[in-house]
Amino acid sequence: MADVKLAIIYYSSTGTIHAMAQRLGEAGEKAGADVRLRQVPELAPAEAIASNAAWSQHFDRTKDEPKATADDVVWADAVLFGTPTRYGNVASQLKQFIDTLGPQWAQGQLANKAYAGFTASMTEHGGQESTLLALYNTIYHFGGVVVAPGYTDPLKFADGNPYGVSHVTGGSNDAPLSEVQFAALDHLARRIVGIGGKLR
C-alpha cells in the first residue's frame, strides 16, 4: 500500500498512549504508509500537570514534538486517534482538537477516510470500549469509515478488543505494553493502511 497517508493523532498524559502511537507509526511505515505522528496540545493547567510526577516528566519530554493541525487530517487517507479514557470518554485535549475541525468537516474534507482509535485506562473495566465508541460518534458525523479491527485475526482473541486497541496500566504509569498489545497495534496499523488505500 505504497503512498497511503496515515496520520496518528493522539493525546498522552503519562506516556502510555504515546508509546502506543509510536508503535503504530512503526507498523504503519512497515506496511508501506507515509506516516505523520502528531500530538495534540496540552490543555491542563500547570498546577495539575505538576501534581503528577509522571505527567510532568512526560510533558517535559514531549513538549517540543510536532503538534497536530487540521491539515494532518485533511492530508491523510487513514487516521488513528489515540486517547486515554476520561470517565469512559475521550480526553478533553483530543476532543478539543477534533472540535476545531468544523471548517474542514463543512467542506467535506474529513469524509471517505478510514478511521480507528486506541486507548488506555488504569483498570480493566475503566471505560475503554465506551471511550472508543464515543470517539466513533464523531467519525460518523465526518462521513468517515470506521475501521475497527473486529475479530479479523486470531490475535484479537488475546487482546479482546474488537473496537480498537487498548491497554490496562494497572495504576502504574510505566506499565509496559506487552507482546499482546504490540501484536494488536501492528494488526490495526496494517488493517487501516490496507483499507485506507482501497478507499483512496
Automatic annotation (TrEMBL):
GO terms for cellular component: membrane. Residues 6-193 form the Flavodoxin-like domain. One of its GO terms (molecular function) is FMN binding. Gene3D superfamilies: 3.40.50.360. PROSITE patterns: FLAVODOXIN_LIKE. InterPro entries: Flavodoxin/NO_synth, Flavoprotein-like_sf, Flavoprotein_WrbA-like, FMN_Rdtase-like_dom. It holds the Pfam family FMN_red. Belongs to the WrbA family. PANTHER family: FLAVODOXIN-RELATED PROTEIN WRBA-RELATED (PTHR30546), FLAVOPROTEIN-LIKE PROTEIN YCP4-RELATED (PTHR30546:SF23). This is NAD(P)H dehydrogenase. The lineage of its organism: Bacteria, Bacillati, Actinomycetota, Actinomycetes, Micromonosporales.
